[in-house]
Amino acid sequence: MISDFNKIVISTVFLNFGLIYLAYSQNLNAFDSLFIYSSIGIQLVFLNALFKKKKEVIHYLHFIMMMYIILGIGVSNKYLLILVILLLVYIQILWIIKGECILSQFETSVNNGFGKRLAVLSLLYTVILSFKLCTHFKEEKLLYI
Asked: Rounded to an integer, what distance in angstroms lies between the CA atom of residue 57 and that of residue 91?
């Protein structure tokens, strides 16, 4: 069985590889480029803090990455949008399996932001992002509704 620490590291590394691939393979607008490059930078600092067990840094970066997921509504590139949706779904699956946020072991406060309200809002946000993704495919006439 893979430990929580390893799940966090592996998922962060895969996410970074996906972001790097998109950065070099896609024609991105300024917002998407800034979103990708700043996400990579934040995640590299996050991995460093994770290995050095710097809980306060992890706590703030955890909050910043939640903000980035919310900013995902503004991305234009469909592949980047897919990556944001996949990350959000992965987080929700881990919430269901563990019954709490996988990063709760690194939190500096008792209130780690996990709960039914956040779970419902995340589910609704996933639906909204999925509808936005559908509009990309509809525009390209790949999806006939």
From this structure: 20
